[in-house]
Amino acid sequence: MAVGTLALFYPVFLPMSAAITAYAGHRAMHVDWRTLLKHFLTGPGRTSRILLTFFILLNWKSMPLAWTVRVFHSFIYHALRRPKTLPQRALFQYSITSSRTSLLETDYNIHKSNSTYFADLDVSRSHLVTHLLGPGLPIIGANATNKLVRDKQGAVVKGSLGVGLGAVFCSFRKEIAPLQGYEMWSRLLAWDRKWLYIVTHFVIKGKVRPNGGWSGKGKRRAGAENGKLPEDFGKYVIATAVSKYVFKLGRFTVHPALVIEASKLLPERPGEGWTGGETGTGTPEDLGDLEGLEGDIEWDWKRVEAERRKGLRYADHFAALDGTNSLFDGGEDGAIGKFPLG
């Protein structure tokens, strides 16, 4: 999800989108499409119109309001299409979104500009978070009724629910050519007391397929031979990004585990649960030999915690970069200049 409040989406933007779609559909029923198409293809100025249409189709994702349409589409799509329940293992599974480099995203090196990756990340994260946490967000948003989020004094926290993007890191490995297709594989990496961390891999389109299909069901991964799977998937990775989200009720920071629990994706954890202990992420029990294991073992609280800790080893280094804000000294030793057209 992009930065902003979710309080306006369901009561305002969703009904507004439905009304606009209904009105457009009503108007379209009274249009003589055959005459309109004939005039478009044969009337005066047809060459300019056809070329402009072709240009817009190649660059639709770079057109005005296209970003808004792409992000809001993810909200509406998962509100209508998401299954009522997801398997426990889905918490750390990938959400896959396809895209293609438009001509307007191409820089002077004749490949996708590095700056345009971040708009794609907004869309990919929106699909992941809305699909995974869609059921839990309205529950947390209605906290005055559900009373799941409380402050240190035990009082019920009130306010509108917002999801804020705190930071994004992106490491580039390969270039993406103009009009080349690619996929964004996003999944939950980890969480701590404040942040929910998401990792996204930009992958060459069609080269990798999830093992077992969707949520562990379906065909095995393409390319498997004699029951063995290829291990070097990194050669298909174009870039990798890590993002962090914060959930807010008004100005109060909501523990990410509460949102995940409300979405019924966390198994019950003994002791103080997922928000206790000195770190606020559960008592640091010794997980024994379970940590780091792969395979089809049960996704109980230990398996989930092991996966969270594994991701947190990377997320902690990313979070430490917040301290670089303190390096800014306001040009104590001067500056080399101030330049136009920034």
Question: What would you note in describing this structure?
Answer:
It is a single chain. This protein has helices at 9-28, 33-42, 46-58, 66-81, 117-133, 136-141, 143-146, 256-262, 301-320, and strands at 4-5, 95-100, 161-172, 181-191, 196-204, 237-249, 252-254. By secondary structure, the protein is of the alpha+beta class. Strands 1, 2, 3, 4, 5, 6 and 7 form a seven-stranded antiparallel β-sheet that branches. Helix 2 (33-42) packs across helix 3 and helix 4 (66-81) runs parallel beside helix 5. The two termini are 28 Å apart. 26% of the residues are buried.
Mean pLDDT: 86
Q: Report helical residue fraction.
A: 25-40%
Number of strand elements: 7
Major sheet, described briefly? 7 strands, antiparallel
Kindly, what is the distance between the CA atoms of the first and last residues, rounded to a whole number of angstroms? Answer: 28 Å
Tell me, what's the shape? globular
Classify the beta-strand content into a percent band: 15-25%
Order of H and E elements = EHHHHEHHHEEEEEHH
Unreliable runs, pLDDT <50, ≥5 residues?
1-5, 222-229
| Structure classification | alpha+beta
Oligomer: single chain
Task: Please give the radius of gyration in angstroms.
Answer: 23 Å
Instruction: Determine the number of helices (DSSP H or I, runs of at least 4 residues).
Output: 9
Topology:
Elements: E1 4-5, H1 9-28, H2 33-42, H3 46-58, H4 66-81, E2 95-100, H5 117-133, H6 136-141, H7 143-146, E3 161-172, E4 181-191, E5 196-204, E6 237-249, E7 252-254, H8 256-262, H9 301-320
Antiparallel strand pairs: 1-3, 2-4, 3-6, 4-5, 5-6, 6-7
Helix pairs in contact: 2-3, 4-5
